[in-house]
Specification:
Elements: H1 2-18, E1 25-28, E2 41-46, E3 58-63, E4 66-73, E5 87-90, E6 98-109, E7 113-124, E8 127-128, E9 134-141, E10 145-151, H2 152-159
Antiparallel strand pairs: 1-10, 2-6, 2-10, 3-4, 4-5, 5-6, 6-7, 7-8, 7-9
Length: 160
């Protein structure tokens, strides 16, 4: 009986080590970006690395000429990290709508900045309002970016 228990524990741990995760995100530091990432869809992780329940950060981004505070939403548990489940969401909106930046496209890299096109969607009652979706260009200093989450799908398609 003791042998069976030890064998069960050993096999359970071995199966856990061999299991594959469901991640479709490549992680890179802002200073490691190069031209091979241009055009990729990304999410920027601002200020502190938000991973496995680490504190989420707020970033202010201009939308329609006004500053809007966005909160990071990250579903990173170390095993199943899906690109489409990461986004930024406005933490307040006076007309009952919420605003999300559902992804960004990397358009430029300089020594000190990252230039992106943000894909902005508006929601009411949890439903996207398609006619209000837009794309906004933004530039962020690398010093406020802790990590860059790159869509593995967009990056690998370019490599083929």
């Amino acid at each position: 009986m003791k042998f069976a228990l030890i064998a069960f524990i050993t096999l359970t741990n071995y199966a856990h080590l061999c299991a594959q995760d469901g991640s479709d995100i490549l992680y890179t530091a802002p200073d490691r970006l190069d031209d091979s990432y241009l055009g990729d869809f990304i999410h920027l992780d601002f200020y502190n690395r938000s991973f496995r329940g680490a504190p989420l950060d707020t970033i202010t981004i201009m939308v329609d000429g006004r500053p809007v505070a966005f909160l990071e939403y990250r579903e990173d548990n170390g095993f199943n990290n899906w690109f489409h489940r990461q986004y930024l969401a406005a933490d307040n909106n006076s007309d009952g709508q919420t605003i999300r930046i559902v992804q960004s496209r990397l358009d430029g890299i300089t020594a000190n900045t990252i230039i992106v096109t943000n894909f902005v969607e508006y929601y009411r009652n949890g439903q996207v309002i398609p006619q209000q979706s837009k794309q906004l260009v933004a530039e962020f200093p690398k010093t406020i970016i802790a990590d860059v989450l790159v869509s593995a799908d967009s990056h690998l398609k370019k490599q083929q």
